[in-house]
Design a protein that fits this description.
Elements: H1 12-23, H2 39-45, E1 57-69, E2 73-80, E3 83-90, H3 91-94, H4 96-105, E4 111-120, E5 126-137, H5 153-158, H6 160-166, H7 168-190, E6 194-195, E7 201-202, E8 214-217, E9 222-226, H8 231-239, E10 244-252, E11 264-273, H9 277-296, E12 300-303, E13 306-309, E14 315-318, H10 319-327, H11 336-345, H12 357-368, E15 377-383, E16 399-407, E17 410-417, H13 422-437, H14 448-455, E18 461-467, H15 468-476
Length: 509
């Protein structure tokens, strides 16, 4: 059995230096350091500096990224969150003891505080001419090789902290993610929406068709579920009188892991009283155009060498028309038996499952259409059988007022005119529960309290849920969801009993 302590990447030579420093009584992890200037502030303030040292001194701190030793002078690269700057360290300025201390004990990865004056080198590099330098945190793990950074994909995901240290483009991805989420909040707040927090541990899961994670609360003596969506709680708030609500929610679904799925993911769900599915399409269009403008300065961007445009209006197709256009199948001109034969002819899997024309409509859409929807496209008018929370269509029997938005073959948003008829909702839940009893692990439970809430009356309401992780993937040009989730789900290499478990065999997913 492998010793789980082997997960630790401590470098023995660095541990030896820590021990030596402690024996000397040197404080190597001081509680604070008074940093007066960030690196970005220094670079901005002294952007016009000449080869002469500045009269004004600066005091900054950060991580040492590179050390170039030239005998009695040392050049080093210092970095903080705002950027990097070169250090010029001379033995003549520091004195023998301090200079020798740097040579012996300070290396790549360590945090230091420096005071000095700014000048520009002959090569034009803004540089701090160091007067004093202080070790403020000793790294006992070595950084990745300086020229190639951290390139092992599995290690990048497992040890994101090292990935962030080594790869500036990764840090920029997550700066953009933070900017996008801030933009979402601003977009909605500017339109009068209020942000709320709803339970993550729920006695009844609902709001989507998905397999939940299950746990047990010992004090209450009952089974609980990690939420798969915040929908039913947010709509309870609409019943209670809040007319514009949203939540940026962490959701959990006990399903596959791949380039587009992670068991723990982030969505924004939005509900707007006195509006319908068409209003929510319009809101989603405005939402996407605004975020693209925030990130890229325009409503178009490149994803996998394809120009994607969020310019309004986005394309809209009924599911029936989409299947006709992309799969060349006119669903309602064929019997179910004929449709099954078409599926077999096209080598589609599980062709025996759908039984009705509407079930075949969804089947052909999922198997022959989704992946072809590259430019943003709203697909609307979904069958009632797979839309248990959407209002029945006002004119099309057997359909609901529901849409999904697809971009580059991925579902990005799901919205509808919300079902607010408590009797109809009860029947839909009961139909879902029958599927669940027959073994459908993704079917929804009956939430009687939610039905009861609808019994008190909910106004006509439109709602939409938008997947933030996939949206960030698109806007940052990444083709895997693991590139935009800081700590994606992976098989643990340390089991509960302390042993080392099998590693994830698909690090690229």
């Amino acid at each position: 059995m492998t010793d789980p302590s082997e997960i630790l990447a401590f470098d023995q030579s660095r541990l030896d230096k820590v021990r030596a420093l402690r024996e000397k009584g040197t404080e190597i992890y001081p509680p604070t350091f008074e940093r007066k200037n960030t690196i970005a502030e220094i670079r901005t303030k002294f952007s016009e500096i000449t080869h002469e040292k500045s009269e004004e001194s600066v005091t900054t701190a950060g991580r040492i990224y590179l050390v170039r030793n030239h005998g009695k002078t040392i050049f080093a690269d210092l970095g903080d969150e705002s950027g990097k700057i070169q250090l010029y360290i001379r033995k003549a300025d520091l004195g023998d003891e301090a200079f020798d201390f740097f040579n012996q004990f300070i290396e790549r990865g360590d945090f230091v505080g420096v005071t000095g004056h700014v000048f520009r080198t002959k090569l034009g590099e803004i540089t701090i001419w160091v007067d004093t330098i202080t070790l403020i945190s000793k790294a006992v793990c070595s950084l990745p090789e300086k020229f190639h950074g951290l390139t092992d994909v599995e290690k990048r995901y497992r040890q994101r902290y090292v990935d962030l240290i080594a790869n500036e483009e990764v840090r920029q991805n997550f700066r953009n993610r933070s900017k996008i989420i801030s933009g979402i909040r601003k977009f909605l707040a500017d339109r009068g929406f209020l942000e709320f927090e709803t339970p993550i541990l729920q006695p009844v899961y609902g709001g989507a068709n998905a397999r939940p994670f299950t746990t047990f609360h010992h004090c209450l003596g009952q089974k609980l579920f990690l939420r798969i969506a915040p929908e039913l709680y947010l709509k309870r708030l609409v019943v209670g009188g809040f007319e514009r609500v949203f939540e940026i929610a962490r959701n959990f679904r006990n399903e596959d892991i791949d380039t587009h799925h992670n068991p723990e993911f982030t969505m924004v769900e939005i509900y707007w009283a006195y509006h319908d599915v068409y209003d929510m399409m319009g809101l989603t269009e405005d939402f996407l155009a605004t975020l693209a403008q925030d990130v890229h300065g325009k409503t178009s961007f490149t994803f996998e060498e394809t120009e994607i445009s969020f310019a309004k209006p986005l394309r809209k197709l009924t599911m029936e028309d989409a299947v006709k256009e992309y799969a060349s199948v006119e669903i309602f001109k064929h019997t179910p038996e004929e449709l099954r034969a078409i599926a077999v002819k096209n080598n589609l899997k599980e062709a025996e499952k759908p039984q009705t024309q509407r079930e075949f409509l969804v089947y052909f859409f999922e198997n022959m259409v989704e992946e072809k929807l590259i430019q943003p496209t709203f697909i609307y008018d979904f069958p009632v059988e797979n839309s248990p929370l959407a209002k029945r269509h006002r004119t099309k029997e057997g359909f609901t007022e529901r849409f999904e938005l697809f971009i580059y073959g991925m579902e990005i948003a799901n919205g509808f005119s919300e079902l607010n008829d408590p009797l109809d909702q009860k029947e839909r839940f009961e139909a879902q529960d029958r599927k669940r009893q027959l073994g459908d692990l993704e079917a929804q439970m009956i939430d009687y309290d939610y039905i009861n809430a609808l019994g008190y009356g909910m106004p006509p309401t439109g709602g939409v849920g938008i997947g933030i992780d996939r949206l960030v993937m698109l806007l940052t040009g990444n083709n895997s969801i693991k590139e935009v989730i800081l700590f994606p789900s992976m098989k643990s290499i340390q089991a509960e009993d302390g042993s080392t478990a099998e590693k994830d065999t698909k690090p690229g997913n």
